Amino acid sequence: MGKLDNRVAIVTGAAQGIGRAIAGKLVEEGATVVVADLNGDGAAKAAEELGGVAVQADVSVEADAQKIVDTTLERHGRVDVLVHAAAIVPFVPWDEVDFAYWRKIVSVNLDGTYLVGRAVEKPMRAAGYGRIVNIASNSFFAGTPNMGPYVAAKGGVIGLTRVQATELGKYGITSNAVAPGIIRSEGALATPHKDSFDFVQALQALPRHGHPADIAPAVSFLASEESGWVTGQTLVVDAGHIRD
Questions:
Q1: Domains of the chain by range and CATH?
Q2: Can you name one GO molecular function term for this protein (predicted)?
Q3: 101, 114, 129, 150: the active-site residue
């Protein structure tokens, strides 16, 4: 028996990295998972491996956000869990960030969280049950350099999570955030962040690099019945880097 038996979950950004690890963990715990990602081929491959459904979607586009939820309802008739992990991880010094780049990063990392969360709320409200888990970042607490729009957007994700918890709790919906530290995901390793792991490790309580599988169990807990008395919270999962 898994703690997510008979649950239907949407995981955005699930073609690779943290999102893929989360999707795998939810399936391991018994859930049926809908894999949503801008990378349609990657989503299809992940869905095939997980026995789920793939949706190619840009979460920053309202119609695509709605398509993810509509496809889930058409295939499964319900949606119990949303894990919003879709993100762009930048590495641009503050004085090189122009407004077009700012909007690109914020539109995916914050607008996408709003749009998919808004689309999934209606069926969850009708069912009287829902678990929303938004992936934030410990960079919000650290003020990590070269990530200005990302840090601002992830701070917005934490704020939005609190608002969702307050306004949706009366419908049986919880909303929490998980804030990972630096993780050896495909996205991070494709940027100059790949050179930061040893430096960050020296700041952690646990002296090793983080991997996508380190994030998935925290998300699984917040997606399950076990977290029924937990909402509006941000769980920092970063090997003790941020200790406030």
A1: 8-236 (3.40.50.720)
A2: oxidoreductase activity
A3: 150
